[in-house]
Amino acid sequence: MSISLSPWIWISALLSLAVFSFLYKDNPFYRFAEHLFIGVANGYAVTFYYHNILVPTLFDPLFRQGKLLYIIPFIIGILYFTRFIPKISWLVRIPIGITIGYYVGASIPATTQAFIIKQIQGTVLTSTNFQAWNAGSWGIVWSVIVFIGVLCSLSYFYFSKEHKGVLGVTSRIGIVFIMIGFGAAFGYTVMARISLLIGRLQFLLGDWLGII
């Protein structure tokens, strides 16, 4: 066993142990590591956005290249700081409204294309479906299951009619497919977190303590 003498590895190891200490209970070591992480992350984000977004896309064109049209987004951005002045804090609604309107308008077509049209194409008519049908009986079975699952899941979210009769049956089947989807997503999330835990343990036992 060879313990590392690097100060940065010791700092990383101690901060990792401080975070793991939350598994016992909330304590000052965990809160210190939490506040340090949030502070460093926010400091990095502010620096990153300033040098990579504000300077090349706003400050340089406005102040160095003399493009006066950029004064409009500059003023709109300044209005965000009116939130800290009570008498004119209502002006912050202007940039917030512009931002929300822009992103909603930009995201609706993209979301419709990605999560509605593409999903319909993937369920009804894609080369994958043709390959599945040509793959034999199991390919046909899985194609039918996917098609039924999509229709039943959509019927569960049809609230204009009471879920009775045929709609009640299909909606209950849809719940099964939805729960399977949630379970798969949760399992994937757990696997990702376990992978992060394994990486941290490898660092502590390998790079820091030299046990492995």
Characterization of this structure:
This protein is an all-alpha fold and about 210 residues long. The chain has a domain at about 125-210. About 75% of the residues lie in helices and about 0% in strands. It contains 7 helices and no strands. It has helices at about 5-20, 30-65, 70-80, 95-125, 125-135, 135-155, 165-210. The radius of gyration is 27 Å and the shape is flat. The protein starts with 6 loop residues before the first helix and ends with a helix.
Set out the fold topology.
Layout: H1 7-20, H2 28-64, H3 71-78, H4 93-124, H5 127-134, H6 137-156, H7 165-208
Helix pairs in contact: 1-2, 1-7, 5-6, 6-7
Average of per-residue pLDDT values: 87
The backbone outline, from C-alpha atoms, is flat
Which percent range fits the helix content?
A: over 70%
Which stretches of 5+ consecutive residues score pLDDT under 50? Answer: none
Derived from helix and strand composition plus strand pairing, the structural class reads mainly alpha
Distance between the termini: 8 Å
**What is the tally of helical segments?**
7
What are its keywords?
single chain; 212 residues; mainly alpha; 7 helices
In short:
With 212 residues, the chain is an all-alpha fold. It has helices at 7-20, 28-64, 71-78, 93-124, 127-134, 137-156, 165-208. The chain has a domain at 126-212.
